[in-house]
Amino acid sequence: MSNARSPAILMHRCYKQLQPGRHLILLVGVLLLVLPIWLVFTTSTHSSRTLAEEGIQWWIGEQFLENYAALWWQESGFRRQVTVPGMLLNSAILGLGFMVGSLIISMTAAYAIVFFRFPFGSFCFWMIFITLLFPLEARIIPSYQVVARLNMLDSYSGLILPMISSATGTFFFRQFYRSIPDELLEAAKLDGSGPWRFFVDILLPLSKTMIAALALILFVVGWNQYLWPLMITTSENFTTLMLGIRTARGYQGFAIAILALLPPLLVVIFFQRRFVKGLLEVYK
Fold first, then answer.
1. DSSP of the chain, one letter per residue?
2. 121 and 32 housed in the same domain
3. What is the reported pLDDT for 139?
4. Res. 283: pLDDT tops 60
5. Final residue belonging to a domain, choices 47, 70, 93
6. What is the pLDDT of residue 104?
7. Residue 76: beta bridge partners?
8. Based on the domain organization, do 189 and 232 belong to the same domain?
9. Bridge partner residues of 44 (DSSP)
10. Is 104 in the same domain as 15?
11. 95 lies in the same domain as 210
């Protein structure tokens, strides 16, 4: 019995010995992630003159409220039409529009691929999946030409619609739908449910955690878009927070970066449990 237990005892002792090292690695990782954010925040609380003379600051200054209040009400841009509330609104519209549109397209595409037995269904899925190999930078010129010919420049539709096809969302929903037993579909057919009713009454309630997980990812991706809004808009009325950082000066760029960080951070904090649960359901 002692020989049988000795490997387990040794493993337990090794695990205890490794715990301090694991905690140290986690602590170093946290510091590497938090330190840049801390520097941006502390620098945003100093005057532009201090930053010009001394550079990045390591501690909180005395102009925190003054800087952020002035930034909130300041009108900038060539026509003095760019404000922080307006940039927040544009970023929120872009993030929410991208999230909702991508969810709808991903769910319906995965539903058709999994539950409708049509020829070349798997081929269609892999063609969608291959688009992950082509980032936005590789297709931005033809995408711009299409949007320009459709007269969607300087519009929310031009910002959102060309981006909402998400191969990642389609992949995750396909994997989740494949885990649903076929008996559920047969029972729905016997109950007289059509394809639309099966999708709305059965699949949507079962997909709540998956929707929450992907909604978090898609919102953050849409919120952080920089290159596409830069290419597709010339009017100051569509300036997002990410574009505002580019034109800000002094402490303003650091303060706008903090404001741009807060909404995605709050969304991640409030939905982190559903996010983890939804991703785990894919790999059951």
1. -HHHHHHHHHHHHHHHHHHHHHHHHHHHHHHHHHHHHHHHHHHTTS-HHHHHHH-S-SS--S-HHHHHHHHHH--BTTTT-B-HHHHHHHHHHHHHHHHHHHHHHHHHHHHHHHHS--TTHHHHHHHHHHGGGS-HHHHHHHHHHHHHHTT-TTSHHHHHGGG---HHHHHHHHHHHHTS-HHHHHHHHHTT--HHHHIIIIIHHHTHHHHHHHHHHHHHHHHT--HHHHHH--SGGG--HHHHHHH--THHHHHHHHHHHHHHHHHHHHHHHHHHHHHHHHT-
2. no
3. 81
4. no
5. 70
6. 92
7. 82
8. yes
9. none
10. no
11. yes
The confidence band for 2, taking pLDDT boundaries of 50, 70 and 90, is: very low
Rounded distance between C-alpha atoms, residue 230 and residue 248, angstroms: 15
For 221-236, write each residue's pLDDT tens digit.
889 888 889 888 888 8
Domain that holds residue 7: 2-70
Cα–Cα distance between 211 and 165 in angstroms, integer? 15
CB atoms within 10 A of CB 248: 19
Dihedral sign (CA 34, 281, 277, 160):
positive
Residue 3: exposure state from Cβ atoms within 10 A (0-12, 13-18, ≥19): exposed
pLDDT of 72 higher than 70: yes
* φ, ψ of residue 180 in degrees (nearest 5): -80, 130
Residue 203 burial class via C-beta count within 10 angstroms: exposed 0-12, middle 13-18, buried 19 and up: buried
Distance, CA of 247 to CA of 81 (rounded, Å): 13
Amino acid present at 232: I
| pLDDT value at 93 more than 90 | yes
